Structures are given as C-alpha cells and as structure tokens.
Amino acid sequence: MHVPDGFIDAPTSAATGVIAAGALAVSLRGARRELDERTAPLAGLVAAFIFAVQMLNFPVAAGTSGHLLGGALAAILVGPCTGVLCVSVVLLMQGILFADGGLTALGVNITDMAIVTTVVSYAVFRGLVKVLPRRRRSVTIASFVAALLSVPAAAVAFTLIYAVGGTTDVSIGKVATAMIGVHVLIGIGEAVITALTVGAVIAVRPDLVYGARGLQQRLKLRVGGELVDAPDAAPAPAPAAARSHRPLWITGLVTSLVLAGFVSFYASASPDGLEKVAHDQGIDKTEKEHAAAGSPLADYGVKDISDARLSGGLAGVIGVGATVVVGSGVFWVVRRRRSAAEASASSTGSAA
C-alpha cells in the first residue's frame, strides 16, 4: 500500500507530513515508557523483520497480491508507540534506498501504514484481551483479529486522504469499494502472519511480548467467605538463558535474512492492492517518477547484477541490515534518554 509521488496533491501531502511528524514526536516520548532493557534491543529487530516480510507479496485474487503492513505485529510485540516508530523506520528505508513509496508522500504513508494500522490494531487488541480469558492463546487470537481489521482500516484512511487531495477525477465510491474489498482479503494474510509470529514469540519468551504483560491470572484466596487476590509472591530468579534476549535476537535476524535474501524470490509478482486499484481506476495516470529512481537498490535489486535471484537477494539482505542498524540506533537513543531521565530523577530524590 505504498503511495507513490503524484497520487496526492502537495497541500494534502504537507498536511499529512505535519500529522506524521506530530505522531512521531508523541511516539518517541511514549516509546521511552515502553522500552526497557529487555525489549529495547528487540525493537530494531522487529523493524527488520517487518521489512523482510513486506518483500513477500502473496496472491489474494486474480492478478492482485498483498503484503504485510506490520502495524499490528509491531504494536503487540513492542508497544504501540514503539510500533509506530518501527513501521516508520521501514517506510523511510524503503523510500530512500529502494524507491518504494514516494518521498513527497512519506507523510501519507506514515499516517496510513504506521499510525492508522498501529492505533486501530492496538485498540482492538486491548479490547479483546480484556474480555477473553487471561491466557497466552487469547493474545494470539486477539492478534489475529486486530491485524485483520487494521488493513481495511488503512484502506479507508487512504480513501479519505484521496478524497481530500487526490490528483485525478475519479469516483471516490468506486475507489472505496475497490480498496476496502481487496484489502479485506489482504487483511487475512496479515492476520495469519501476525498471529503466527506473536504465537511463536510468546511460546518461547512471553516476557518479551508487550501485549502479553500483566495477563497472569491472579491467585484467589477465600477469606471470610469472600474471594480476594492472594499477595504477590517474590519472583523466582530466572535462569540465565531466559534472561538473555540474544538467542531470540539471533534467530529473528537469521529468519529475516533468509526471508528477504532467499524466500522473497518466490513472492508474487502481481501488483499489490493499491497498485491494482490505482491502475483499474486511472489513479496512476498522475504518478511521478520517484526521486530515488536512480538508486543502486531501486526496485529491490542491486544495480549491474544481471542475475535476478542474486540481485534481489542481495538487495533484501542489505535492506534488512540497514533497517536493523537504523532501527536499533533509534531505539538505543530512546532507551538512553529514558535511562538518563531515571538517573536524574533518582539523584534528585536522593538529594532531597
């Protein structure tokens, strides 16, 4: 659903840029609360994994494909504010390095693919978790539904943005019908990928899943004929293997590299949902050439390498590496600022 340059007029693109910048500023502050010594190193990996899986277009209808958006997955694994940052890092890497998603439309893409998907999915997720049994399986079920609904929500958001600033004279009703219809199907794929990934992580390290925090069932005691919560027991020391996030980090990175460097060659070559709708409705008539069209990695291939498999694989590996480095750098800075703030507050309290 990467919106290219030319689909949306300049004033609307600028307005969504302001919205995106404001949301990123809020997310940077919120991420300080979400990230701790366990999850901060994993946030960059989540961004790299989303980048890798977005390369795996899957067929959803005749001549149409879809790919992961990733807002729900990121929000549930590392928190909604951190999730917005994760998807935004991916979009930035795709736009600058691979000419995927217009640079003037970056605000549109962040608003649509990072903010809308994350906010909608996490709101649905939290609502379901509150009413479902407090079990790990409930987290997986809630992840599936949240991801499923986040994709058509993004399609609705694009339609509204296009209604305000679209550059072609097309029927908004037709655009809405086509966009929502195909992205409901894409949402099924998003839901499956999200649920499988969240389920896999929660099976081995539930303590690292942000959305699973606080779901332990409290022990009840009967006192005076009434059920009351039992007092919290002192947590048992975790074994060294459980405390370390390194095995999960290495597994996730290797998986991302394999998906982007090898499996992506077998992805569907059909246009994705937005590309198909844009072509069918005549929206793509105003598409402009990407400012980074001359990039050595444009269109997910390495320039001057003629072998398609090798070219695409190298581009995928480079993309994963760049995303994990940039993402990890962003979240390291965020974590450092939280640590500095905590140290300052502690020293202030001690002085008092």
Could you please describe the fold and organization of this structure?
- The chain has 352 residues and is mainly alpha-helical.
- The chain has a single domain, classed as Arp2/3 complex 21 kDa subunit ARPC3 (Orthogonal Bundle).
- 65% of the residues lie in helices and 4% in strands.
- The protein contains eleven helices and four strands.
- The strands form two sheets. Strands 1-2 form a two-stranded antiparallel ribbon. Strands 3-4 form a two-stranded antiparallel sheet.
- Helix 1 crosses helix 4, helix 2 packs parallel to helix 9 and helix 2 runs antiparallel to helix 11.
- The protein is globular, with a radius of gyration of 21 Å.
- The termini are far apart.
- About 3% of the residues have low confidence.
